[in-house]
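Course assignment 3, question 2. Fill in each field.
Student: A.L.
Task: Predict the tertiary structure for the chain below.
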Amino acid sequence: MKVLLSGCSFSDSCGWGNAGNKTDPRCWYNILAKQHQLNLVNVSHGGHSNKEIIHRVKQQILTDCYDLIIVQLTTTNRAWFWKEDNPLSAAKVVGGIVWDTTNELEKQSLRVVAAAFSNRINEIERDLTDILLLQRFLTTPMMLVNFGNFGQDVSKMANVQ
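Answer field:
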């Protein structure tokens, strides 16, 4: 069975070594793959936002076929900003931490964005819409795994009246 996994550090190195180290046998996905003899394609990357995680799934399903897709959701306070001059490069904001900027002005600008314009409800709604649209058009089964606060935030939103 060919399985696609997209997520953040919980599905990348799992805390066992450096980012990109997907070979450690203690990682949950390697245990799962071994137990069920899965052909696992892991496109996870530490620090990715839900937007990036879902985007990676979209990229992969355009170029390959899978029997199962596992989307490991992360915390909702991560943002991803494409750079106009290089669409393959992105600056990231996780909570108040900014990285992958090219200069100090870009870093300061993203700190302002993180502090003044972060809207968790809009981010969650966007991520949910992406997931629902992806599920609607996929013929492949998709499983959502939540290691971040995504599920808690959705539950809180559902209870708000």
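Instructor remarks: The first strand starts at residue 2 and ends at 6. The chain has a mean pLDDT of 82.
Grade: pending
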